[in-house]
Amino acid sequence: MTDSSLPATAPDPSHTGPSSAATRAPQLRRLAGQLLQGEQPYMLYLAFVILLVVFSVSSPYFLSLDNFLNIGRQTALVSVIAVGMTFVIIARQIDLSVASTLALAGMSAALAMAHLQDSWLVGAAAGIGTGALVGLINGVLTTRLAIPAFLVTLGTLSAARGLAMLVTETKPVIITNEAYISIFGEATFFGIPAPIAWTLLASVIGILLLHYSIYGRQIYAAGGNPTAALYSGINTRRVTTLAFVFTGMLAGLAALVLSARSHAARPDVVEGMELDVIASVILGGCSLFGGRGFILGTLLGSLIIGTLNNGLVLLGVSSSLQLIIKGAIIVAAVAFTKR
Amino acid sequence: MNVLVHGADPQPSQGPLVRVSGVTKSFGGVRALRGVDLEILPGEVHALLGENGAGKSTLIKILSGVHAHDGGRIEIAGREVAFASPAESRAAGVAVVYQDLSLVESLSVGANLMLGREPRTRLGFLKKRQLMAEVGAFLREHGIPLDPRAPVSSLPFAYRQMTEISKALMGEVRILILDEPTSALTEGEERILFDAVRTVTQRGVGVIYVTHRLNEVFHISQNVTVFRDGTNAGNFVTAQTDMKQLVTAIVGPGHVLPDIDAPPPTSTAFAAAEPVLALTGVSNDRLRGVDLTVHQGEIHGLAGLIGSGRTEILQTIFGLRGVTAGDVRVADRPLGNHRPREAIDSGIALVPEDRHVQGLVLDHAIERNLTLPRLPYFSRWGWLDQRGALAQAGIVMKKLAVKAPNAATVVKNLSGGNQQKVVFAKWNQPRPRVLLLDEPTIGVDVGAREEIYGLVREAARAGTAVLVVSSDLAELLRLCDRISIVADGTIATTVDRKALDGTEALHHLIQLPRAERAQT
Asked: A144 and A129 in contact (C-beta within 8 Å)?
């Protein structure tokens, strides 16, 4: 496949129109080139449209603004973390610990507000800081001790969950701070529900970092060919470690959103969610061999998985059957979208 | 009708073994082959020549089933074929030895040679003794000096390549394709390879021999085909042609031919200047007290046997290996125990030996590769100056004459010579103070080789201190002002280019430390 959507390629004839549009066309094309990173995810679009059509036809409740906001809220946790996972997978690594990290970060935020200071800022800092710390441990063990990330994060998956359960002997911690509940859970910003607003913010940060910063170039190189990156003066260990830290911080942010919406932090939440996160990223066009992927694809991937969950519930499919259908569709979709 | 000739069949058949006619192939928008012809007779060695990008590799990949051809006709022993996979090609008797090796390093030579067709007992267990005996007999028969029990990971590069060639020679081979088999071999090993090739041609096997070393063509081949820009540029009977004619066919008319017997460049007054690069007593796990100075504008060569520590000296200067004793100074500033980033920031550039593994991210665009070592220069508070990077890439590509549609072209789709130019271009802007080159023309054709020599000389003229590692002694003699001989992780001796009157003298110097050691 060619990189026809990158800049410096021949103009696209379909973009000639009125004069105002004609001046905007090159900018739009450049933007599209940045956001798509040379990928042409037609199968992804197709899969999404097919899903929308199937559920719209088969459920009268599916096609409504309320339901779409609902999907957005339900997808928020997966989407936020998947933005970070995109960096990790582009760097040729994997992070299996994100769901446990979320649980631990949620406990940490709730406990900090209950025992240190009852302020939403303290809660947010504790949650995101805990996530960053788990990410740092993942990154340092992977890059310094050269243990495969699969094993390191399998270990932290277990250890972080255990720690989350240990601190309160598996009891939930109630959150009463109203500012916290409002900012991360129940407020609306310009009509956008908080969980969706945080997803958008995480995505914008992800796009800026990955597609517009020096760091983005470094992470693509570190994943695309680690040796060549090293020979070009890139500190591949630091770059890779930062990807884990960023993912951990986003797992922390997801923890804030979840605990604010349920007015409590629980140590046993979102078990197995790492599968949805990784599936979103791979579905969105990231290569497990590193060096390829883009944030918009990841978001579309997580929307597809969210829509699937939502539609199956609306159709009244039993939860055990839902898991089977979801698994089959994910594998089939990845088989179709991979090159 | 059956004109199929088996490897073991001593009867040469009437028609050609391989007949390629009008074959075309495009990758994306790049037309790699525009209709080429090639005929290989049983029992002949047929040299296939051409610059990088001329289409040799593409044709070989089509013959070996890696790519499918777009148009034209390919016949093997009179039957039209279109291989869908390397396995099909192998089943038809085509064996290929690539420059990039395909050995399982953790296994022994014997296990590699018999991979996938090991002798087994009825229950499926491996008959290891029989395997080793079979391989040993095969190696003796062909006079190949390899120990079947030695693990491949323990072998120097030249012996790995010989293992790869032996692997291709085993089994039923009708057509053997050798892609630059001698690029890393010493003269003695080269002779063994040629003998092995002659042995197989006596069995009626046709050999396609791809090389950039023209003098080999006269040693081993009977016929020569030259490709240029994806078409045939000439067919010659080796005995009736000469070097000049071949070079003209390769580079094409209108090219100014490099003077092959050019006198060495006269060394400038660099000796009076302060050294730009100075190593004093540098030691680490592979080096033992290296003393070396390279002056502004000097081209300094490092010669030595494989494994002597030549590459390690470059890697240590570039910060890829730690320094346990001694120091590395650039413009009299000590670098200490530095990393590549500090080396780059103090003006050191490295063009590594293996462009696929160390030099390039093959899946990424040219522009991405070019900006990689210079990212901090395109940074504004950590944000990438996209336009600046793209504009810079355009300028450098033009300056080095990189043949590609644009800067967004993926490096994988370029020819070897153009890929090497991209590696050079990574370090072209700003001009480095110290340029380290590790085998700068390996797998690069005559034309691109001259261009690269031009780039190196230009850099030296502009004041860069250049340090070149090369196994090609003629290359060192053509480029360098001084040459240091590396042996056992240290500099054995340094000589002025003017003191050497040919490759023989240099060859002798390289062998000398080994001979001295053998005496004591």
From this structure: no
